[in-house]
Amino acid sequence: MATTEEIRADLADIVNEVAGVDADDVQLDKSFVDDLDVDSLSMVEVVVAAEEKFGVTIPDDEVKNLKTVGDAVAFIERSQG
Amino acid sequence: MAPIAATTGPAHTRIMGMGSYRPKRLVPNSEVVDAIASSDEWIQQRSGIKTRRWAGPEESVQMMSVEASRIAIERAGLEVGQIDCVVVATVSHLLQTPAVATAIAHELGTDGAAAFDISAACAGFCHGIAMASDMVRAGSATHVLVVGVERLTDILDLTDRGTAFIFADGAGAAVVGPSDTPGIGPVVWGSDGEQFDLIRQREDWRDVVGTETQPGSGVMPHLTMQGNPVFRWASFAMAKIGQQALDAAGVSIDELDVFVPHQANMRIIDAMARSMKLPATVRIARDVADQGNTSAASVPLALDRMMLEGEARSGDTALLIAFGAGLAYAAQVVTVP
C-alpha cells in the first residue's frame, strides 16, 4: 500500500511532465489552478496519467472537486483502499 | 439465378496529388476576443491558435472545393476527364440536397463522374480516403477525387467561448488512384454514438422553423462542443487508434516520417504526440496555429502545407488521423505523393 507521500511524489512527477511545474512545488496544500497554474486541459492530462499510474478511475464529475494536490491524493488513496 | 459479373481493380492504391484552398481573409485573435470576453493570450494558451482563415461571401463551399481540386488533379498529372468519382466530406454545405459533389464534378468538367457527399464531420477526409482506396481496388472507380471542405463560419456562434475562436474555413483535395505498391494503408475507423452530444449542431432544423403550437427559434443552429471530454477522448483514445493504424500498416513508429492529426487544437496535437511517444524525428503538422480548425478540410490542408514547405517529401511515410463529431474517427498510413 503506497503511503500518502509516495502518492504525492508520483503525482508530482506527473504534474511536472504534463505542465512543466517543478515537482518540489507540488505539495498537498497547493491548488492546481491558483498555485500551480495547471489549466483544465492540463488537468485532464494529469487525471488520465494518474488513472494509469495508480490503477484508479477518476470520473469527469469528480475532477472539479479535486482543487488541491491533497484532494487528488486523498481521492486516489480512497479509490485504492 | 442469372450469374452476375464481378469487377476487380488494381491491388494497390496511392494518393497521386494534393491541393488546397485557403480563404483570403486572415483573422487574428484580436478580432474574436471581444465577443467572447477573452484575450489573445488565453486563446493561444488553450488552443495554440494565433490566426484563422474565414471565407468571404464569394468563397463558397463549391468555389473553395473547385480551386483545391484543380490543383490536386494537375499535381496528380491527370486530365479532369480521368476523374470518375468525386467524394466530398463536409458538414457545412447548407443546402441539404443535392450533394455539392455533383456541382463540383460538373464545374470541374468531369465526364459525368459519380459524385456524392459524406457526413463524418472532422473525420470526413480520412473516411473519404479509405472509401476511395477501396473503390479503386474493387474496380468501381479508377481515379477518385476526395475533397474535405468547410465554411464553418456559417454555423459558428461568435459569442460561444467554447467554439468561436476555434473553427474556420477552407478546402483540401486529394486524388486517389492505382499504384504498383501499397500507398494507402488499411483504415482503422469507428464511432462512439454514446457521445453523440459532445460535438453537435445545437438543434434540429425543424426546431428552428417551429410548428403551429411551438414557435421556432428562428436562429441558425450553431455548433456546440464540450471541450474537456472531447480533449480527453481526442488526446488519449485517438492516440491508441493512431498506433492501431500503424500496426495495421505494418509500420513501426520509428519508420514514421510525418504525423498529420486533425488540426483540432494544438494542445490535443501535443498530448497525442506525447501519448503515442512519437520519436523526435517525426515531423508533426501544426497548421492549426495559423489556419484554425477547419474540420473535414484540416488534414489535407495540413499535409499539403507540409509538402509545400518541404517538411513532408515525396515517398515519406505519413500517419493521417481525423476525429470529431459522432464521435467518429478514421486513421491510415499513406505514402506522401
Automatic annotation (TrEMBL), chain A:
<keyword id="KW-0596">Phosphopantetheine</keyword>
<dbReference type="GO" id="GO:0000036">
    <property type="term" value="F:acyl carrier activity"/>
</dbReference>
<dbReference type="GO" id="GO:0016020">
    <property type="term" value="C:membrane"/>
</dbReference>
<dbReference type="Pfam" id="PF00550">
    <property type="entry name" value="PP-binding"/>
</dbReference>
<dbReference type="InterPro" id="IPR036736">
    <property type="entry name" value="ACP-like_sf"/>
</dbReference>
<feature type="domain" description="EAL">
    <location>
        <begin position="1"/>
        <end position="81"/>
    </location>
</feature>
<dbReference type="GO" id="GO:0005829">
    <property type="term" value="C:cytosol"/>
</dbReference>
<feature type="modified residue" description="O-(pantetheine 4'-phosphoryl)serine">
    <location>
        <position position="40"/>
    </location>
</feature>
<dbReference type="GO" id="GO:0000035">
    <property type="term" value="F:acyl binding"/>
</dbReference>
<feature type="domain" description="Carrier">
    <location>
        <begin position="5"/>
        <end position="80"/>
    </location>
</feature>
<keyword id="KW-0444">Lipid biosynthesis</keyword>
<comment type="pathway">
    <text>Lipid metabolism; fatty acid biosynthesis.</text>
</comment>
<keyword id="KW-0443">Lipid metabolism</keyword>
<keyword id="KW-0597">Phosphoprotein</keyword>
<protein>
    <recommendedName>
        <fullName>Acyl carrier protein</fullName>
    </recommendedName>
</protein>
<dbReference type="InterPro" id="IPR003231">
    <property type="entry name" value="ACP"/>
</dbReference>
<comment type="function">
    <text>Carrier of the growing fatty acid chain in fatty acid biosynthesis.</text>
</comment>
<keyword id="KW-0275">Fatty acid biosynthesis</keyword>
<keyword id="KW-0276">Fatty acid metabolism</keyword>
<keyword id="KW-0963">Cytoplasm</keyword>
<dbReference type="InterPro" id="IPR009081">
    <property type="entry name" value="PP-bd_ACP"/>
</dbReference>
<dbReference type="GO" id="GO:0009245">
    <property type="term" value="P:lipid A biosynthetic process"/>
</dbReference>
From TrEMBL, chain B:
<feature type="active site">
    <location>
        <position position="262"/>
    </location>
</feature>
<feature type="active site">
    <location>
        <position position="122"/>
    </location>
</feature>
<keyword id="KW-0276">Fatty acid metabolism</keyword>
<dbReference type="InterPro" id="IPR004655">
    <property type="entry name" value="FabH"/>
</dbReference>
<comment type="function">
    <text>Catalyzes the condensation reaction of fatty acid synthesis by the addition to an acyl acceptor of two carbons from malonyl-ACP. Catalyzes the first condensation reaction which initiates fatty acid synthesis and may therefore play a role in governing the total rate of fatty acid production. Possesses both acetoacetyl-ACP synthase and acetyl transacylase activities. Its substrate specificity determines the biosynthesis of branched-chain and/or straight-chain of fatty acids.</text>
</comment>
<protein>
    <recommendedName>
        <fullName>Beta-ketoacyl-[acyl-carrier-protein] synthase III</fullName>
        <ecNumber>2.3.1.180</ecNumber>
    </recommendedName>
</protein>
<dbReference type="InterPro" id="IPR013747">
    <property type="entry name" value="ACP_syn_III_C"/>
</dbReference>
<dbReference type="InterPro" id="IPR013751">
    <property type="entry name" value="ACP_syn_III_N"/>
</dbReference>
<feature type="region of interest" description="ACP-binding">
    <location>
        <begin position="263"/>
        <end position="267"/>
    </location>
</feature>
<keyword id="KW-0275">Fatty acid biosynthesis</keyword>
<feature type="domain" description="Beta-ketoacyl-[acyl-carrier-protein] synthase III N-terminal">
    <location>
        <begin position="116"/>
        <end position="193"/>
    </location>
</feature>
<keyword id="KW-0012">Acyltransferase</keyword>
<keyword id="KW-0963">Cytoplasm</keyword>
<comment type="similarity">
    <text>Belongs to the thiolase-like superfamily. FabH family.</text>
</comment>
<keyword id="KW-0444">Lipid biosynthesis</keyword>
<dbReference type="InterPro" id="IPR016039">
    <property type="entry name" value="Thiolase-like"/>
</dbReference>
<feature type="domain" description="Beta-ketoacyl-[acyl-carrier-protein] synthase III C-terminal">
    <location>
        <begin position="246"/>
        <end position="335"/>
    </location>
</feature>
<keyword id="KW-0511">Multifunctional enzyme</keyword>
<keyword id="KW-0443">Lipid metabolism</keyword>
<dbReference type="Pfam" id="PF08541">
    <property type="entry name" value="ACP_syn_III_C"/>
</dbReference>
<feature type="active site">
    <location>
        <position position="293"/>
    </location>
</feature>
<keyword id="KW-0808">Transferase</keyword>
